[in-house]
Amino acid sequence: MVLGRSEPGKHPVEPVTLKVLVAGGFGVGKTTLVGAVSEIRPLRTEELLTEAGRPVDDTSGVEGKHTTTVAMDFGRITLREDLVLYLFGTPGQERFWFMWDELSAGALGAVVLADTRRLEDCFAAVDYFERRSIPFLVGVNCFEGAPRHPADSVRRALDLDDEVPVVFCDARERESVKEVLIGVVQHAMECAAGRRQPVTG
Asked: SS3 of 52, please?
């Protein structure tokens, strides 16, 4: 789909653009997710892991990872002719968390990507979005060989509110990621509608 193109005789549609964050622990698949779904070449700010960073870069569980995002990943996807999402992948390591405030400004919502082998790695992201009342869902990235747990078990382990969606996905697969992003938009819209409801009684 090409932006600005419309049916003959109709004015071009000016799309609504929305900002969605992709957060989670180090090595959970954020860069992969953005790359899988972006219709433009993703902007990546990855650097090689070095010996100097070894004391602070916990690579347990992701021993094959040799790079890390130091600023952000950026991509774009057109969900409909009139709806475009801009995706911002946050850096997963604690020493880069100072960038989260800048990245989260104006965000509609967020995906917190989780790995069932290292669920504790996404606690910080869950806490961040809860404290700032930014709607989010948890996307469990189904790594090969990782244990599979029911959504309710993941919800309890992360101490999530009942209304926070928990979905399963493959961060490498475009259609799987698209469903996650649609889920974020729907959840954010429901949260916004709930805030607009008048208080009665």
From this structure: helix
pLDDT digits (tens, 9 = 90+) for 99-137: 788 889 999 999 999 999 999 999 999 999 999 999 999
Residue 68 one-letter amino acid: T
Q: For helices 30-37 and 174-196, what crossing angle results, to 10°?
A: 100
CA dihedral 99, 179, 68, 103 (to 10 degrees): -10
Note the pLDDT tens digit of each residue in 25-61: 888 999 999 999 999 988 765 554 444 444 444 545 4
What's the whole-number average pLDDT of the chain? 83
Q: pTM of the entire structure?
A: 0.79
Letter string b/e over residues 167-179, b meaning 16 or more CB atoms within 10 A of that residue's CB: bbbbbeeeebbbe
Distance CA 62, CA 148 (A): 18
Tokens of 130: 């809860």
Number of CB atoms found within 10 A of residue 39's CB? 13
